[in-house]
């Protein structure tokens, strides 16, 4: 059995790709990066509705490589488990369902580490952020077949107010085909223009958010858009966009990796650690250093 003392290098010390899973052109050759740019219509859709979806980020070989790395982590005794910021084999509040949720995969396995520098990710992220892309943190959300749990309606920035200003972006990447049957992402278009809402729970009652919504907002919540994606496709969304996902009752798993980034210059709003086990970034100081690398400057 693996132990906490098993040597696993912390890949957070390496601020560049360490393998060749995600080939990158010469950074000085601007023309070689153009193919990953979003169209004007896609950028406009993001600003109008709060999201843009169906962006191809991974090919089949890259998906397979990430799936292979992910599989080991479902065993709570895996090597490197001390490197997670958070690790929940089941964060669901319903004992009859399962929601695997973990933060910090980039520190443990080379594929998830190098994913941060994937040109197909950083180029559109820079467009949507309007500037250089700095890493915030990653997440894994996995729903097993038949008894996968829900991710309740929420805004990402409700959990991130320890950083300011609000210049954040979320990228949700499917490692399986994601459909309504297996609990795909659901968005409330235009809700990125709503006020910042209190936290009402991430892995419990889908209706818990009702207590903090106006009647009009509640009506809008009952008209979600299902974001069905093929494996390797992604959706980018605004930090205030209301989103969630229903349970998985299908015979297929629904696995996803989420990359959360900020525009370079976002600062700490606290003297407490921003992530579990990470040294504090003093209040007012910009994110940087070992755990918050700069990923891309357009």
UniProtKB/TrEMBL annotation:
InterPro entries xref list: Phytyl_CoA_dOase-like (IPR008775)
Cofactors that this protein relies on: Fe(2+)
Molecular-function GO term, any one: iron ion binding
Pfam families listed in its UniProt record: PhyH
UniProt keyword annotation of Oxidoreductase present: yes
SUPFAM superfamilies: Clavaminate synthase-like
Keywords: Dioxygenase, Oxidoreductase
Superkingdom as given in the UniProt entry: Bacteria
Record Gene3D superfamilies: q2cbj1_9rhob like domain
Protein name, UniProt field: Phytanoyl-CoA dioxygenase
